[in-house]
Amino acid sequence: MSIQVFRGLLPATALSVALCGALVAGLFPTATLAERTAAPEGAKVYIISPKDGETVPQTFKVQFGLSGMGVAPAGADLPKTGHHHLLIDLAELPPLDQPLGKEIMHFGGGQTEASVTLPPGPHTLQLMLGDKNHVPFDPPVVSEKVHIQVQ
Questions:
Q1: Is position 38 within any domain?
Q2: Residue 1 and residue 25: Cα distance in Å, rounded?
Q3: 54-108 pLDDT, tens per residue?
Q4: Which of 19, 43, 82, 108 could make an S-S bridge to 68, C-beta 3.0–4.6 Å?
Q5: What Å distances lie between residue 80 and 64, 68, 129, CA to CA?
Q6: 18 in helix, strand or coil?
Q7: What residues pair up with 121 in beta bridges, in sequence order?
Q8: What value does the CA radius of gyration of the chain take, rounded to a whole number of Å?
Q9: Residue 35 domain-assigned (yes or no)
Q10: Nearest Cα to 52, choosing from 120, 140, 115, 144?
């Protein structure tokens, strides 16, 4: 889009109107909803370790479990596979129609465990499986929350 400036001047109001019009007209790219991959029936993700209610040191290992599906790196277009995302202290699930964001630990290499460091106090851990594009499955393949106490 180009805005022509007549005689070298374009009042701020006219510029604002032109930019708003361009946004409304869809000339600027906007976020789009991602297409979700169907989850295989019976797919289940869970946290093997630590156990719910466990007390752990500040740095500890989280082991991921999965049944009814396979684990594959992000970008791998293989049927019935996904990769893990760890949600820490999130009260609600993230938007399900978008790639999972920065507030979540991504394991796009197909990892099945991770070393995590958290400050002392109570925390929650939850796993969510993402498809090749980091988008949650439909329905979401998400674990129960595990409540831990960090020393």
A1: no
A2: 11
A3: 999 999 999 999 999 999 999 999 999 999 999 999 999 999 988 888 779 999 9
A4: 43
A5: 17, 8, 11
A6: helix
A7: 150
A8: 22
A9: no
A10: 144
